[in-house]
Amino acid sequence: MNSKKPILPAEFLLGGAISSSQAEGAYDEDGRGLETQDLRYFDYHWNREQRDHHRNVNITTPEFNQAKVTSQTDNYPLRRGIDFYHHYREDIKLLAESGLKIFRTSISWGRIFPNGDETEPNQLGLAYYRDMFKACHDNGMQVFVTILHYSVPVHLVENYGGWQNRKMIDFYVKLAKTLFENIGDLVDYWLPFNEINASRFNPYNGVAIIKDQFANEHDYLQACFQALHHQFVANARTIELGHRLLPHAKFGGMIARFTTYPATCLPADVFKAYTDENIKNYFYTDVEARGSYPYYMVKYFKRNNINILMNSTDKELLKNNTVDFLSFSYYMSMIDTVDIKEYRKTSGNLVSGLKNPYLKTSDWGWQIDPEGLRTSLNEMYDRYQLPLFIAENGIGAYDKVENGKINDDYRIQYISAHLDEIAKAIIDDGVPVIGYTLWGIIDIVSCGTLEMSKRYGIIYVDLDDSGSGTGKRLLKKSYYWMQRVTAGLKG
Ligand code: BG6
């Protein structure tokens, strides 16, 4: 093994990521329609336990209906975000000045088609994204667009039932086509769906399905997988169209990577972790990258009495329109075993897991595991031989402002350890990794718990969980550290 510390290559795309629903705010401005993320309720008086409890509870139909008719923003933090909608020019300039080379954000579907099923787009929405992406390029940053990051027009849920309805494919493809035709020249990388495995692990966010509308667990699961199939088809049709309209554009697949180790070397634990990896991760990338449903899912569906309805051309469409690269979010790893009572539980992104005795956790209980990222990169490249992109990584932490400064050494340590492992994967192991976008590069509202106090950014935003504060941006210690890292990358 090489004893010199490997360094990221100069062409590596180091950048930052956010999503429209967690950052933009301005939920009812310039013709934007109401979206599913605008309806998620939060009470800043909740204690830790209540916050964590609500994180795991899907929205109920009464909550959804109540939220639809209220115009207050106080208890709906995703309606206000960090007001990026009105501050994007300054924010993008700050990001560019940290030396980052790429910016990832998502499109608010409701800004382009307020109800989702109109024939004509909202020009103000298109103008906003055009201007924002132009600002990125003017400031020397490439653009990485997620077409759908968890938020769909509420009208599509009420009138069509969300992604369980096949009509969603056409509405989505119309959105994609509109984007290709109007802002396609400004986008460098496309991600049709954020974390497509959220369909199973967070269905309200992933496929716009409300759990209490199903008679039992089986019907719910059936709807989630049917909805997922519609997203797979929409993904393939988008890639087909995108390759035709934008011959130079690159289209990626993305999952939330649940890296899972066997808790012991007991062969039954090894097999449990192996099947978990398949069912939670690889099923989704197998379809997106290999173009067909894998054998183990055929059996899984049979065992669970799940029947996916497909059109006669779906299989061919999936086969012929696979992704150009694969990406994933990576925050932590977990362990699995056949003997779970032996282990303590701990939290994680979208799912909870068992505590690995060798790993420390973040303030929110997510297990910090930089080496697991190297392993995951190797495993994914070995399986698909496609370039990889780490679309999200970062640490949610409580930051303290002391004398106008934020000394977030814990964040520097976290990012630095993960970048080191990526460098090893590239240089020592030979894995082609295109880039890395740090999640929540500027503080935004947490998607899981809706807390503003769960901060990921290298730029601090002066807002608290109740939405109070000046909204002013402050540069953290990690921002200045990032400047040195990016300067090093430029050689
Ligand atoms: C990812 C999502 O799963 O995790 C993001 O794509 C989210 O939207 C991120 O913000 C971190 O999760 P959280 O719950 O800490 O915001």
Automatic annotation (TrEMBL):
Cross-referenced Pfam families: Glyco_hydro_1 (PF00232)
What InterPro entries is this protein classified in? GH, Glyco_hydro_1
A GO term from the CC aspect: cytosol
Q: What are the UniProt keywords, alphabetically?
A: Glycosidase, Hydrolase
Write one Gene Ontology MF term: beta-glucosidase activity
Question: Could you state one GO biological process linked to this protein?
Answer: carbohydrate catabolic process
Q: Where, by residue number, does the polypeptide cross the bilayer?
A: none
| rRNA-binding listed as a keyword | no
> Superkingdom of the source?
Bacteria
Indicate yes or no for the key word Hydrolase.
yes
Positions in coiled-coil regions = none
Q: Which family does it belong to?
A: Belongs to the glycosyl hydrolase 1 family.
The protein's name in its UniProt record: Beta-glucosidase [Lactobacillus kullabergensis]
